[in-house]
Amino acid sequence: MDAYCYSILGREAASFLEGLPFPAGTGETPELFLLRRDPAQSPAAWNAADPRQLGGEAADIRWLDPRRLGEAPALPEKVRSALDAGRLTGVNLRHPRWERALDFTAPKGGKKRVHLLAVGDVGGTLLTALKLLGGDVISAIGICDLNEKAVERWVMEMGQIAWPFDSALPEVEAVKPENLFDCDVFLFAATRAVPAVGSGVKDVRMAQLAANRPLAEGFARQAREAGFRGLFIVLSDPVDPLCQAVWRASNTGPEGEMDFLGLLPEQVQGFGLGVMNARAAYFAKKDPRFSSYPAEGRVFGPHGKGLVAADSIRHYDDDLSKELTRLTLEANLRIRDLGFKPYVAPAVSSGAMQLLLALRGERHYGSVPLGGIWFGCLNRFTPYGLELEALELPDALFARLRETERALHEIS
């Protein structure tokens, strides 16, 4: 297959598409690879981890195991060299804001300003962890809540946390609702419905969807109006369907049509999977049957029903993995059985820890756009775009991921 050379915004590009309306390139090693894909099913720009991600197949969970995308296209030597070095950005020219996506893929230097909406149980715990752990990557944390006294309380509390003779911790400030998107990272931790302990609700996250979706959609539209260019992180349950709702609401025009002029797909991530990884590791410490998990295991999918825990990628045991998945899913119920809401570990493991890893450019657990849904996996932000971890997944494990993918499409 022939590849054509172009020059875009002073950057070398290659493509299988002939006759694109760009100047001819020099034929040097490209930074960009140009494609055309449905903007509802594909990121606008991404760091290609495998040549098959540059073929004609849609972006879905097969990206987690690119072998399942079929035969790899033959890439010219210089294109393959850039891909192998992790320095090739795929660009979807059908997305109306692909140029803005190129700007988003290149992380800006320096510490980031983070804004947090709602300082309830989750938000307050998350805020504390970010204050203590985030000084290397966070300059300041702005907080906003309907309860102004809660905001005042947390500003005072956080202002009184400091090391002796050291002011390296990020400042915490009150933020007005109209200024929520004057930041680099927006954390949505607001919720309208948390079933009470003892309510008998089995799937608390799905019970929250109907109540939390309109709230999340309202802030998604505000992000659109503000021209927000940072990360929109969803922490409220159910994380994965809310990510899809946020992206869709922000990209819906005034007449109700999808115009793709809001948040880029890769701007939206859900942070719920980190605690599921931590819970699986917790059970691995308690039961030697799961001892391979910390080094070889993974979790995939949503924070809740549909979660897939794999005891090991290299030596996968389907029965053990299903048992580990069950234990991980039910861990929060054990906390509720004690009469408490299970929010501390999620706020720290899913929220604070994953955000700090993301800001440091390290691999973290987050829900990312895959074929129109948001699906949890390990990923990282690189100077060449969002990169998903690509693995060789056993057939039995991949079949479980397919089941979860179908379920998420049904919810969406």
The amount of beta strand, in percent, is 15-25%
Judged by helices, strands and strand pairing, the structural class is: alpha/beta
Radius of gyration: 21 Å
Measured distance between first and last alpha carbons:
37 Å
Shape: globular
The helicity comes to: 25-40%
- Number of beta-strand segments: 16
Number of continuous helical runs: 11
Mean pLDDT: 94
Instruction: Name the strands of the widest sheet in spatial order.
Output: 8-7-6-9-10-11
Please mark out the parts with pLDDT under 50 across 5 or more consecutive residues, or reply none.
Answer: none
User: How would you spell out the order of helices and strands?
Assistant: EEEEHEHEHEHEEHEHEHHEEHHEEEH
Largest sheet: 6 strands, parallel
Could you provide a short overview of the structure?
A six-stranded parallel β-sheet has the order 8-7-6-9-10-11. A five-stranded mixed β-sheet has the order 1-2-3-5-4. The chain has a three-stranded antiparallel β-sheet with strand order 14-15-16. It has helices at 77-84, 98-105, 121-133, 148-159, 204-226, 239-250, 273-286, 293-296, 318-337, 344-359, 395-411, and strands at residues 4-8, 11-15, 32-35, 45-47, 89-92, 112-117, 138-144, 171-174, 185-188, 231-234, 268-270, 298-300, 308-310, 364-370, 373-382, 385-388. The chain is of the alpha/beta class.
